[in-house]
Amino acid sequence: IYADAYARARRCGAAAAAERLGRDYLRYMLDVVAFYEGQARAIVGEPIPQVLLLHANALNADRLDDLLAALAARGYRWVRLGEALDHPAYARPTDGYTGAGGITWLHRWAITAGVDPQVFRGEPEVPGWVEELRQGGGEECPDRLRGSLGPPPARSSASPPGSPPAR
Fold this sequence. Notes:
The chain has helices at residues 2-11, 15-43, 58-73, 81-85, 105-113, 128-135. The protein is mostly helical. Helix 1 crosses helix 6.
């Protein structure tokens, strides 16, 4: 959703909208990371190595350095996938879910183990204004998006953007 809205903003030359989307995307991603840290504790009983899946798009290309810096500031380090998957949690059975939805391994493990579904509540949601920008009201470049795109937002390696959410 963010990537589509960001791509639309860039196509429409809407620098302010693209910048706002980029900043909020970082906030959202850090909120999602904090949520899944809590999910690991609730479902597995301890922190586990997490796998970060990012799609190739302009938003991730423009904001990847900031996102990685923010995650490092949060205490994350990078390991090979095999090392992460060596954690015993990844050997848990996942026979409780067979559906079309792309749910997380944490949620598959919870369903298989019969964990109370209340554990799934509270995942951060994409704000409505992002979806509105993505949809564009049926227009490719609605008036609220028009403007001058200019160069991509500057990346700062001096400090991570914002601060991690309090948990």
